[in-house]
Q: What sequence folds into this?
C-alpha cells in the first residue's frame, strides 16, 4: 500500500492572531504543522508499522512557501519516508489559495507524479481556513470513495472499515476497495513526538520540489473575501450579591425568564 | 480537600488525614514573641472601624483557606483576616497592631512551601488579595506598576497583550501574587535569563510596621541616590514591612520560543550538555531544567513522557528552552546544538517541540512535579543550592542513607542551570511523617550541603520551616546579629511575621 499524506503549514494554534489591513497578520508569527494533519501523519505511520497493512512507503505533500519544508521535515521525523513540496507564495489561509485549487493540485500529483497511491490521508480541516473541503473535493475529482472525520481506521480485506464521528454519534463506513481518501479527526490518535534521532534522519530524506504554476491548475480564488475582522470583545461578567439580584437580571436584562 | 479539623492545638498528636498533616517541627521550634498578645473580639471591632472588610470566625473551617498552607504541613489558628483594599488601609492595620502589640502575618497567594504565609498561632492575617489593581504599564520602557495582590499569571497575560513578558515564571503562577514573589525573592525557571527579582524590581511601595508608607516607586531604572532600601524588603518574607505596590521591569515578548526535551544516561552528561548549551545557544538560552528518573516515574503515571527508553524512563531528562526574535535563527542554532550533543554522546535521545502545544505539554511535565508528589504521600521537601560538581551527589547520598527505609523514594528535579536542586523524599501511600526517616535525613542533609559550600534554602526561603537553621547552617553568628539589628530597627515590637525568618527566641 502506498500512502500520500497532506500536511499544511498553519499559524500555531496557541498564537493569538491579530487582524491587520490584509487580513490576519502572519509576519513573525509562529507557524506549525496543522494539528489534524499531524493526526493524519500519525495514522499513516501507524499503518506502516502494522505489518498486516503492507505499506511500501508514506509520502508527505505540502503546498506553500519555502518554509513548508520544515513542516515536511517534521512529518518525515514522525515517520514519512519522503516528501513533495509544491512551492507557491500565495496565502493558504483562504485569502488567496483556496480548497478547490489545493484539491486539484493533489489530483495532479496523484495522476502525474505518484501514480500508484492507494490511500490519501488528510486532516479533517486546517485551523486557519477551517474549510474541511480538500478531502471530499479530492475524492470527488478522483472519483474515489471517501470517509471523513475518521475516529478509527481498520484494515478490512481489500479495503477499510472507518468509524466516523458525527453530531448524532458514530457511523461506521466500509470502504470495499482501495484507493480511497480518508480525512482524520481528533480522536483518531495521539501523534507521537518526533525524536531527535529521527529528526536528524529526516534531514537526509528526499523532498521533491515543484512550482505550483507548472501544473495545469487554476490557482485563482473562486471565492472573494470581503472582510476580515476580530470578533467583538467579550464583555466582562459581573457578580451579583444574592439570588434576588440574579433573578432580576435574568428577567430584566438577559430576558431569559418570563 | 482539607477534611480534618483540629479539636485541640496541642501539636504532639499526629493524626493522619488524607491530605493534611502537621510536621513534628512545629512542636520543637517555633514560639512567637512573648511580648505579643492574641487578638480578641474588641480588636476585631477596632480593625473593622479602620478598614472596610475584615473577616472573623471562630470556626476553623471558615478561615481554613487562610490558616492552612499549601503543603499541608502547617496550620495557624487565626480568627481574624483583614482584607484591605488600599495602601492606607494596610497602614491603618499595621499602625493599630503595632500599638496593640498584635502579631501580623502578611499573606499573598499562600503558596509558600516553608510555612511562611500562615500564622503560627493566632496572629492577624493581612491578606493582600484585594490590592490587585494595575496602576500602569509603560509600553516603551516595559515597566509594570501594580498592586501586590496581582496574581502572577494574570500579570503574565496582561503584559503579553502589550508584547511583554514577566521576568519570573514558576509553577505556582496561577495562585501566587507578585507581592509574595517579591517578598520571598522568588526564583523560578527564567532566573538564568532575566536575573533575580533584585535585578528586576525598579521600585515598590511599602508600609512599615508603624504604619509609615514609604513610596519607593520609580519610573526609571538607574538611580544611585542613597541607600537602596527596596532591596531590604525583597526576600525579607514580610518581616520588615508590607509591600503594597511594585514597579517591575518586563522584557519584550520573544517571537521565537522553542523547547527541547533531552535524555542523558548520567548526571555528568547533563553537566556536559549544559556547558555545550551555553556555548552553542549563547544568548538564546532561556531555561535549563532537569528531572531524574525516579521523579519521571511518578509523573509518567499521569502524563505522557516525550522520550522513553522502551518502557523505562531515562536516568535524567532535560527541559531546555530558547527565546529569541527570529525563529529560523533559533531553530538552526538549536538543531546544531542538538546534533553536536548527540554526536558527542552527551545526549542519547530527545525531541524538539514542533508546536506550542508540545511546548506547553513539556513545561507541564516539569511544573507538575511538586503538585504530583503532594498527592502521593508525605513529602520531606528540600530546596538546596550546590556547585554543579556536587549537585547530584547529594541525592545519591540520601538514597544510601535511606537504604533501610525502602518505602522512602528520593525524587529530584530542579533549575540545574542555577545549581538549584529540589530534593524531595516521598513515601507513596503514607501521608504521615516518619520520625525515623526524618532522623536519617536531618541534620545530615544540611551538614552535607554546608560542607559542599551550598545553601540549605536556594529559593524557597526560611519561613517557619527553616528559620532556626539560619544560624546553624546558613549564616555565621555575627551576620545573624546584624540581621537581628536590622529587624529591631524596622520592627521594634516584632509584630511582623513573628516566629519566622529569623531564629525564634525561646
A:
Amino acid at each position: 500500500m502506498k500512502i500520500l499524506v497532506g500536511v499544511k503549514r498553519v499559524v500555531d494554534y496557541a498564537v493569538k492572531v491579530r487582524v491587520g489591513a490584509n487580513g490576519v497578520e502572519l509576519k513573525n508569527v509562529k507557524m506549525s504543522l496543522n494539528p489534524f494533519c499531524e493526526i493524519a501523519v500519525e495514522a499513516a505511520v501507524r499503518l506502516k508499522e502494522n505489518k498486516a497493512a503492507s505499506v511500501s512507503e508514506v509520502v508527505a505533500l505540502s503546498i506553500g512557501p519555502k518554509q513548508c519544508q520544515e513542516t515536511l521535515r517534521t512529518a518525515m521525523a514522525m515517520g514519512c519516508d519522503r516528501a513533495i513540496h509544491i512551492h507557491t507564495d500565495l496565502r493558504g489561509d483562504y485569502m488567496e489559495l483556496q480548497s478547490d485549487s489545493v484539491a486539484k493540485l493533489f489530483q495532479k500529483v496523484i495522476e502525474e507524479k505518484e501514480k500508484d497511491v492507494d490511500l490519501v490521508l488528510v486532516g479533517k480541516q486546517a485551523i486557519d481556513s477551517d474549510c474541511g473541503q480538500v478531502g471530499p473535493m479530492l475524492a470527488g475529482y478522483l472519483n474515489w470513495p471517501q470517509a471523513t472525520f475518521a475516529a478509527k481506521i481498520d484494515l478490512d480485506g481489500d479495503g477499510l472499515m472507518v468509524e466516523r464521528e458525527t453530531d448524532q454519534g458514530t457511523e461506521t463506513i466500509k470502504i470495499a476497495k482501495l484507493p480511497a481518501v480518508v480525512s482524520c479527526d481528533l480522536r483518531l490518535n495521539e501523534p507521537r513526538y518526533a525524536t531527535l534521532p529521527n529528526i536528524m534522519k529526516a534531514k537526509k530524506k528526499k523532498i521533491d520540489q515543484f512550482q505550483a504554476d507548472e501544473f495545469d491548475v487554476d490557482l485563482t480564488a473562486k471565492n472573494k473575501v470581503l472582510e476580515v475582522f476580530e470578533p467583538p470583545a467579550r464583555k466582562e461578567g459581573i457578580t451579583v450579591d444574592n439570588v434576588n439580584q440574579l433573578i432580576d437580571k435574568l428577567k430584566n436584562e438577559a430576558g431569559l425568564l418570563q | 480537600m482539607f477534611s480534618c479539623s483540629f479539636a485541640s492545638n496541642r501539636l504532639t498528636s499526629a493524626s493522619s488525614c488524607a491530605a493534611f498533616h502537621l510536621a513534628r517541627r512545629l512542636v520543637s521550634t517555633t514560639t512567637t514573641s512573648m511580648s505579643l498578645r492574641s487578638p480578641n473580639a474588641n480588636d476585631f471591632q477596632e480593625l473593622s472601624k479602620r478598614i472596610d472588610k475584615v473577616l472573623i470566625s471562630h470556626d476553623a473551617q471558615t478561615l481554613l483557606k487562610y490558616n492552612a498552607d499549601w503543603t499541608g504541613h502547617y496550620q495557624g489558628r487565626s480568627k481574624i483576616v483583614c482584607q484591605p483594599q488600599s495602601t492606607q488601609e494596610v497602614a491603618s492595620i499595621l499602625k493599630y497592631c503595632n500599638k496593640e502589640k498584635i502579631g501580623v502575618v502578611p499573606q499573598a497567594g499562600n503558596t509558600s512551601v516553608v510555612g511562611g504565609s500562615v500564622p503560627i498561632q493566632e496572629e492577624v492575617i493581612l491578606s493582600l488579595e484585594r490590592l490587585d489593581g494595575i496602576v500602569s504599564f509603560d509600553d516603551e520602557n516595559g515597566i509594570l506598576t501594580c498592586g501586590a495582590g496581582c496574581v502572577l499569571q494574570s500579570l503574565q497575560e496582561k503584559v503579553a497583550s502589550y508584547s511583554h513578558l514577566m521576568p519570573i515564571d514558576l509553577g505556582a503562577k496561577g495562585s501566587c501574587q507578585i507581592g509574595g514573589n517579591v517578598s520571598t525573592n522568588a526564583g523560578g525557571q527564567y532566573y538564568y535569563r532575566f536575573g533575580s527579582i533584585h535585578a528586576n524590581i525598579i521600585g515598590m511601595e511599602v508600609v512599615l510596621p508603624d504604619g509609615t508608607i514609604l513610596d519607593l516607586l520609580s519610573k526609571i531604572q538607574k538611580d544611585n541616590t542613597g541607600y537602596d532600601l527596596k532591596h531590604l524588603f525583597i526576600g525579607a518574607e514580610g518581616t520588615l514591612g508590607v509591600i503594597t505596590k511594585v514597579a517591575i521591569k518586563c522584557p519584550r515578548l520573544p517571537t521565537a520560543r522553542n523547547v527541547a526535551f533531552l535524555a542523558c544516561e548520567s548526571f555528568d552528561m547533563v553537566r556536559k550538555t549544559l556547558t555545550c548549551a551555553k556555548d552553542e545557544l549563547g544568548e538564546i538560552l532561556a531555561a535549563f531544567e532537569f528531572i531524574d528518573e525516579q521523579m519521571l516515574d511518578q509523573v509518567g503515571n499521569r502524563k505522557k513522557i516525550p522520550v522513553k527508553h522502551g518502557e523505562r524512563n531515562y536516568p535524567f531528562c532535560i527541559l531546555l528552552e530558547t527565546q529569541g526574535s527570529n525563529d529560523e535563527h533559533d531553530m538552526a542554532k538549536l538543531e546544531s546544538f542538538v546534533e553536536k550533543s548527540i554526536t558527542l554522546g552527551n545526549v542519547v535521545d530527545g525531541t524538539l517541540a514542533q508546536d506550542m502545544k508540545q511546548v506547553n505539554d513539556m513545561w507541564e511535565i516539569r511544573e507538575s512535579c511538586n503538585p504530583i508528589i503532594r498527592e502521593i504521600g508525605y513529602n520531606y521537601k528540600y530546596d538546596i543550592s550546590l556547585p554543579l560538581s556536587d549537585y547530584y551527589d547529594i541525592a545519591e547520598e540520601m538514597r544510601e542513607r535511606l537504604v533501610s527505609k525502602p518505602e522512602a523514594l528520593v525524587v529530584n528535579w530542579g533549575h540545574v542551570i542555577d545549581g538549584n536542586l529540589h530534593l524531595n523524599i516521598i513515601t507513596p501511600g503514607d501521608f504521615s511523617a516518619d520520625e525515623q526517616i526524618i532522623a536519617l535525613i536531618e541534620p545530615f542533609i544540611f551538614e552535607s550541603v554546608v560542607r559542599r559550600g551550598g545553601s540549605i534554602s536556594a529559593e524557597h526561603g526560611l519561613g517557619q520551616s527553616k528559620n532556626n537553621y539560619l544560624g546553624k547552617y546558613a549564616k555565621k553568628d555575627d551576620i545573624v546579629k546584624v540581621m537581628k539589628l536590622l529587624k529591631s530597627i524596622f520592627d521594634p515590637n516584632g509584630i511582623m511575621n513573628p516566629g519566622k525568618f529569623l531564629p525564634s527566641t525561646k
About this structure: Chain A touches chain B through 21 residues (CB under 8 Å).
